Amino acid sequence: MAEVIGLSNLPTQRARIVTQDGGVFNMMVCGESGLGKTTFVNTLFSTTLKSTEDHPRDNAIRKTVRINISRAILEESDFSLRVNVIDTPGFGDNINNDKAWQTVVDFIDDQHDSYMRQEQQPFRDTKFDLRIHAVLYFIRPTGHGLKPIDIETMKRLSSRANLIPIISKSDTLTQNEITEFKNRIRQVLEYHQIRIFTPPLEEAADQSNKQDMISFEHARSIIEAMPFHIVGSDKQYQNAAGQMVTARKYPWGLVEVENEAHCNFVLLRTLLLRTYLADLIETTNEIHYETYRRLRLEVGLKEGEDQRDDDPFIPARAPARKLSHNPAYKQEENALKKYFTDQVKAEEQRFRQWEQNIVTERSKLNSDLEEIQQKVKKMEDQVKNLQLKMR
């Protein structure tokens, strides 16, 4: 038997370091208003992380998509997790939602860009990391299919972050409608080649290993349930068994949030926090961030912005983001140009009118002057005639 030298203690050492340092989880919730995003976030973390007062229900129509960030430090079993929840109020709420996804996409790109620039600094002891580890896209439970804005937004998000589509308020659909709705969504995702995050599914090398088989079956059950259908609630009621559960109450009974027979909330929470949180973080760093970094450096080289002095070991500096590339800023720029042009035309018209008034007034004054001069001349002639007569 080989002597044990202690290599097997490395996982224990890593676990101790992670416990001391804590972790960071950045999650974005995206979707139309009224789909229960705030309630879901509070239920997911079992605390009031976001307040409904942050999104007042007024009659004002938001013309642009905004970014709101809620921060919290959650502790469990001596482990602390810094959670950043990014919300996108105003998304999909307008009649014209053209380029509504641009603000969301730009925010994700900006976080990758910010982290890359921090890595290029000489001192990197402290880095601010707000790269999105998971994007939860909330789908309205229409039962018919995805809307064009859903398809276009998810196509762009899937190439930048771990996309997890969610059917919200699924208690408005029957079980058959949910199954049919999920099949339609899967077909659309496959047709448009929209990649969603799925847990790693690998056949167990040792079929006799019970733990591996359990993990395999659990991962497969999560994949088969996608896209998840959930029900959100922050209230507790007593069920038929006499237990207090988080649920939505109806005249015919309760819809329990954590009952797998009612919705997929438990599976979604398992995916996000309990089992695959590390996979979400590693996928963000090793796939999405590295892809962004490679593309931006390639763009920098092509545009001739490489300031390396022919040193191949120094990474190229990423080009600065141009606001003109953003359709929202381009639209605002065009509106300002139009306003400026209209103002110039109005001033020119007023100047022409003022000039015309001056010309008219000058003509009138000249006419009056000629008339007076004629009267003066006539009076002078009369004076001369009188003088002749008196002689």
Automatic annotation (TrEMBL):
Gene3D superfamilies: P-loop containing nucleotide triphosphate hydrolases. One of its GO terms (molecular function) is GTP binding. Transmembrane segments: none annotated. PROSITE patterns: G_SEPTIN (PS51719). It comes from the Eukaryota. It holds the Pfam family Septin. One of its GO terms (cellular component) is cleavage apparatus septin structure. Keywords: Cell cycle, Cell division, Coiled coil, GTP-binding, Nucleotide-binding. InterPro entries: G_SEPTIN_dom, P-loop_NTPase, Septin. Belongs to the TRAFAC class TrmE-Era-EngA-EngB-Septin-like GTPase superfamily. Septin GTPase family. PANTHER family: SEPTIN. This is Septin-type G domain-containing protein.
